[in-house]
Amino acid sequence: MPSSTTPQALSVSQLNQRAKQTLERDVGEVWVEGELSNVSRPASGHIYFTLKDDRAQIRCALFRQRARFVAAPMRDGDQVKLRGRVSLFEPRGDYQLIAEAVQAAGLGELLAAFERLKAQLDGEGVFANARPLPFPPRKLLILSSATGAAIRDVLAVLQARWPLADVTLIPVPVQGAEAAPAMISALGLLNRQARLDPERDVILITRGGGSLEDLWAFNNEHLARAIFHSRLPVMSAVGHEVDVTLADFAADLRAPTPSAAAERLVPDQHTLKRQLEHHENRLQRAMQARLERDSQRLDTLRAKLRHPGEQLNRQRQHLTALNQRLSRAMQQTLTQQKAHTEQLAKRLASQDMARLHRTEKDRVSQLQRRLGTAMQRQLESRQARLTSAARELNAVSPLAVLGRGYAIAQDEQGQVVRRAEDTSPGQKLKLKLGEGQLSVEVKRRYKV
User: Fold this and answer.
1) Hey, CA dihedral for 253, 257, 260, 265, is it positive or negative?
2) Segments making up each domain of the chain, as ranges
3) Which residue range or ranges hold the OB-fold nucleic acid binding domain (predicted)?
4) With contact defined as beta carbons under 8 Å apart, do 185 and 171 qualify?
5) Does the pTM exceed 0.90?
6) How many C-beta atoms lie closer than 10 Å to residue 319's C-beta?
7) DSSP string of 348-364?
8) 420 Cβ partners below 8 Å, 6+ apart?
9) Is the CATH number of domain 12-105 1.10.10.410?
């Protein structure tokens, strides 16, 4: 016969309380690894999420006072390790894990693998590339995601600094297992095409920032070797400034960010414009100064230049002055001699005429001889000076040049023709000869 008594029942809250105590006592604090899902950040500052693997999941809570010590942002799909206490939320009976610390799973292993591979490739000389990049490149080939922020940043900087840049985007995945093979294949294709098109100058490999796992494709050793063996110079700009990949070491040049890569590849058009304006101003000032100096020199030469007619007039005037001086000197000498003769005649009249006549006659004869000799010498001296002046005058006279067989050609306006190329067939010219003039017509021009 069944017993009429029933066992004492627990309330729901008592059951949940016992379960919580059992979980916290028997399981306690543990390290658990899994994938983040349903990450939620309410205004309270706490973080609620689900930690799962391929067969199970558990609700988790990271309270505000602990959340501020987590360095990396927590995102759905991240693989993490967390330390926490297993507990139960009594009001709802929810089994949960109260997280105390969170870190990226596998980070230490990835860093160790990175350092091992880096040392191996460095020992093989894969990081020895340092070829200079043409500046600016005639053609820029970009390997990047067609939809990522990196390509938008690069194109924006290129447009602002150097709109003339010839850019070709080769879209490739930049994250995941297929990223490295796709970039290796693209590098091979571009280098094969470079043999046919030598104007393909620079390859830029770029993507935006991310976690170590996001950037791991750029640590692929085969990609690093492909960059090292590239015939075309390669610039790498992967992630943020603190991110460093094997692709950066293998490239000819590394830029800290995609935007910085664009700034290093092309000049700034505004800076070049300012430099051109500066050089233009300097050139204009130099040209103006040169023109002023040449103008002053031309004025000086023009002031010194005299027409041959003016030179002849000056020589003629000088010759006339010499003749006048010679005439005056001869007249003065004659006058002086005449006065002296008259004085002697008076003295002769007061002396013994016969004796004085003989004496003075002798003296007069002597004086006449001296006068004749002096006048002859004076005439010879003046004649020599006159002859010398005439020779000088004849030497500078264009008529003397014409007398030697030369001619002066003048156009219809009377301008002297100095070069054959200043004339044209059929043109009328006037030739001035040593004696007379000729009117001629140009039949043909020659260059000597």
Assistant:
1) positive
2) 12-105, 125-267, 308-396, 403-441
3) 10-102
4) no
5) no
6) 16
7) HHTS-HHHHHHHHHHHH
8) 445, 446, 447
9) no
